[in-house]
Amino acid sequence: MTRDQKKILKKVLFYLVLAIIVIYLLFPFYWAISSSLKTEAQLSMTPATLIPRDPDTGEISIFTRNYKAIFTNGGFIRGLINSTIVATSTTILALLTGSFAAFALGKLRFKGKAPALYTILAMTMFPQVTVLSGLYAVINALNLSARVSMIFTYLLFTLPFTTWVLTSFFRDLPDEIMQSAQVDGATPFQTFHMILLPLTAPALVTTGLLSFIQAWNEYLFALTFTSIDVEARTVPVAIQYFSGEFARQEPFGEIMAAAVVVTIPIVVLVLIFQKRIVAGLTAGAVKG
Amino acid sequence: MAISSSSNLAKEEQKLAFKLLLPAFLILIIIALYPLGQVFYTSFTNREFASSTKTEFVGLDNYQALLSFTVKELDPIIDQETGEQAVDEETGEKQFQRPIRVLPRDPHLYRPAFEFSFFGNKYVVGARTPDFIRSVWNTLVFTFFSVFFETLLGLIVALVVNSEFKGRGAMRAVMLVPWAVITVVSARMWEWMFEPTRAGLFNMLGDRFGLIDGSYSFLSSANLQLPAIIAVDVWKTTPFMALLILAGLQLIPNELYEAAEVDGASKFRQFFNITLPLLKPSLAVALIFRTLDALRVFDVFQVMLSQKRYSMASFNYFQLISARKMGMASAIGVIIFIIIFAFAILYMKSLGVDTE
Amino acid sequence: MRKNLLLVLALVFIIAFSGVVMAQEEDEITLTIAAGAVGQEKATAEEAAAMYMERNPGVNVEILDTPDLANDRYGLYLQFLEAESSKVDIYQIDVIWPGELAEHFLDLYDYGAKEVVDKHFQAIVQNNTVDGKLIALPWFTDAGLLYYRTDLLEKYDREVPKTWDELEETARYIMEEERAAGNEDFYGYVWQGNAYEGLTCDALEWIYSNGGGKIVSDDKKITINNDKAIEIIDQAAGWVGGISPAGVTGMGEEDARSMWEAGNALFMRNWPYAYALGNEEGKPTAGNFDVSPLPAGDSGSSAGTLGGWNLAVSKYSEHPEEAAKLAMFMAGEEVQKLRAVEATLNPTIKSLYEDEDVLEAAPFFGSLYDVFTNAVARPSTATAPKYNQVSEQFFQAVHSVLTGESDARSAIEYLELDLMDTTGFETGEPTQP
């Protein structure tokens, strides 16, 4: 085998693996798209078809009314707006407070680091159901509005996550960077937000995206906190409130359509930020 | 002079650290202190949810009710005629006494959680809350397999996406799609794919390839429930792992690979000698959060298995909402808390990531 | 720059906080009804609320939609009641909740309900009465029905089955014929076999119609461990993998309906909601089916499990008088008729089943009357506040028999022990009319 052949073979193998990964990740999503384009009769057809087909004639027949239905449903649009507000605010708050804490935990010397780290992690160790009624009591006592209470309570899982991931990144940054900055007369805080923060961009973007999605998808807290305040319902709750004409009827096609539509903004978000995920360190930057 | 300035510096650093940690702790204290404290306190009471019955302090009763178990041997049934152990005519299996005969009933009723054989003897594990004992087992099995596969697949995906090829940017977005689908909805979507008729994807495919007869019920067959749920979770959360690992890979300086290349080290050796060791800290954090989420798994179990099979958190949910035993539910919460804490420390120690 | 961002964020939160404390107008009172979120059900509730507001100036009625999933709705209500919230005045509650939640609701007999209860179905009123107090007014009802394919029964010249044995026989015959004719997905009978409340409903129908009692009797005796009950559960377990698909042990209402509407089942047990949906254009079942009471077993009489929703007035309401008055109006004849005609919700008032307008809008209501008068209530009031646990132990036991994990006799023996442990009741013999 010549070197060229080897190269080609490697390339073919690589793209094969890539193709398998793409199919694995996307096929269930494709199934959701296909289901969202089916009528109830097409959904219950046996055997199921990969492309929506007419039950009688077997010809391809696409049904778009599920999409029309969700967009004429005021609750869904409102949910998209609410989810955007809530998830963005939570993420910004978590990244802000989390990166401060992480800088302290990862780069500064002080006593009691381990207890601090574990205390923060402990906040997120209970199942959501367990803390729900306690949280609800706190929210009632503080008289928080539904949106604000979601923003704050989501910090219960986003803040420990951002803090821990960022701490591990700060710790891995070479100490020389800080020392050289200090020699140049920078205060530790200046070092932090002028030099270290840009270096952790991949971690910031990664944790930001992951927390954003987690907050975007949260259901149980949102369901409870927005139960009275209809205007504040987020997307997962709005979808759960989708209903057919009759009680018990589950509008499966519409739910799938909503799932597809809701995923798109996140994909766009990732496309905007994706370069940052890998734009991190060059060897030069590390040496300082 | 030098000493005092360095100790001054240390003091200042400590002060700064305190200031930086303050916002995070302030937020956590305001929102979390009361609910978490309440969970601990309630776990020692017999409090009922949304009920005016008087709450009493019951000490460790809830924990005892959840965790007590007993192992009893089941005596073989002797056939009167032959004097030997009776054998079931249909299945050909040896017959043993039913657990109902041997498990204690007073002062508490013990129900069979599961049975096992050992050296030809048969034993039954009885528990006061067998559903909880089983839910712990289900959750541990689920956590082990799903975290294992997620890490493996996440690593593969991250390495592939990290290499140079056309369409990398799009691939990074594609990679996140499963994670982006709303959890409750994705569980419903998979439930539909597992539908026990040929309207469901897997029955349709299985039937087309002649593997099953087209009305296989994945979610009510005891052997397939956990594998099905694990498959769903692996699909859903591999992106989470992959993205965190991908970010970790960015921290590894390129020169290390260049140097290894010059030394003639193979790609495999590079992976095991450079990538893996340097990835450890990021991997540890990713593993901790994945394990933590897996141990608290709720949505997939709730939607797909509901009351057929519980995870710890879904059992907890039904104890609170359906049985309204708030004291019991809180005790379950505390037990989950302790298990997760143990896992977190275990990971940190075994992966050699220091916290100081 | 970062500091500015913090300031801006703080400002945003302060504004958001202050928005909450805005006071309401003084001169009118607002009453909130937590009700179903579903299409016509919600629309007609709002229509009725508008009618009430027009006649009662000074009262503002709001309909708060709640999740359609009973578990989610129940969890939400518990959260409100735990917080003793005055935000909701009237709750729409499931027929199995009055006993569970009785302590949070007013006795409607104190607010003039005595005069109207006789108009409603007796079984529901009895179900909603806890310790002599009327916890909730019946609003609309539901009961298990047998759906059958008229075209197929005609084609094979068979009658609508009156007993479970007949159903089994007919189902087996037609299923074999249809499969031989090429429809390999065809089954005889689909129902709700998943381990959830729906199975409690289905299994109660088998047992009660077979003379096996209703799990726990009204006078608080555990009656489940009897031969009639065991016999019929065994029979049902025999359907799984035979006239019913093996996957029926994972099916709920919607799974059964989906299979039925694909034209893949001869019989289906379901609630009345599937009637209008099955007749939608383009579905193989449209125009080809009808409903009848479920088959009977040894008792000779059919039994459909009672479902449906009721209106209860919260003890924590700030305006109990007005709220009770509103509940009486919503559950009254006028509104029930409106909802029967416009949303095909089954009234709980007996006379409406002879009302011409109602029968014109929903002709199949006439045949439901008998089903509702003979409906069997789940033992929720007798076992309160432990009904959910009782029901879970019951459906888990039945499910384990259906999947073949255990045999009916030991499952029921254990169930009896479990129920004694949970409720503290004695055992007894089933008594049935």
UniProtKB/TrEMBL annotation, chain A:
**What membrane topology does the annotation report for this chain?**
Multi-pass membrane protein
Q: Which GO terms describe its biological process?
A: transmembrane transport
Q: Which InterPro entries match?
A: BP-dep_ABC_trans_perm, MetI-like, MetI-like_sf
- Domain of life per record: Bacteria
Chain segments annotated as transmembrane: 12-33, 85-105, 117-139, 151-170, 191-213, 255-273
Alphabetically sorted, this entry's keywords are: Cell membrane, Membrane, Transmembrane, Transmembrane helix, Transport
Compartments in which it is found: Cell membrane
Q: According to its record, what are the GO cellular component terms?
A: plasma membrane
* Gene3D superfamilies in the cross-refs: MetI-like (1.10.3720.10)
Q: Which residues form the ABC transmembrane type-1 domain?
A: 80-273
Which Pfam families does this UniProt record tie to the protein? BPD_transp_1
Spell out the family assignment given in the record's similarity comment.
Answer: Belongs to the binding-protein-dependent transport system permease family.
Q: What is this protein called?
A: Trehalose/maltose transport system permease protein
From TrEMBL, chain B:
Q: Where is the signal peptide?
A: none
**In what residue span(s) does the ABC transmembrane type-1 domain sit?**
136-347
Keywords in alphabetical order, please.
Answer: Cell membrane, Membrane, Transmembrane, Transmembrane helix, Transport
Give the top-rank taxon of the lineage listed in the UniProt record for this protein: Bacteria
Please give the Pfam families that the UniProt record associates with this protein: BPD_transp_1
Cellular component, GO annotation = plasma membrane
Quick one: where is this thing mainly located?
membrane
Write down the membrane topology.
Multi-pass membrane protein
Gene Ontology biological process terms, A to Z:
transmembrane transport
The record's CDD domains line, in alphabetical order, gives:
TM_PBP2 (cd06261)
InterPro entries given for it? Answer: MetI-like, MetI-like_sf
Where are the bilayer-spanning segments? 20-41, 140-161, 173-190, 326-348
For this chain, the family text in UniProt reads: Belongs to the binding-protein-dependent transport system permease family.
UniProt-recorded name of the protein: Trehalose/maltose transport system permease protein
Organism, by scientific name, is: Halanaerobium kushneri
Automatic annotation (TrEMBL), chain C:
Matching entries from InterPro entries are given as: Bact_solute-bd_prot1, SBP
UniProt protein name: Carbohydrate ABC transporter substrate-binding protein, CUT1 family
Q: Which residues form the signal peptide?
A: 1-23
Please name one Pfam family that this protein belongs to: SBP_bac_1
Q: Which UniProt keywords apply?
A: Signal, Transport
| Top-level taxonomic group | Bacteria
Q: Coiled coil: which residue ranges? A: none
Q: Which organism is it from?
A: Halanaerobium kushneri
**What CDD domains does the database record attribute to this sequence?**
PBP2_TMBP
Per the record's keyword annotation, is Membrane included, yes or no? no
What does the similarity note say? Answer: Belongs to the bacterial solute-binding protein 1 family.
Q: Does the keyword Transcription apply?
A: no
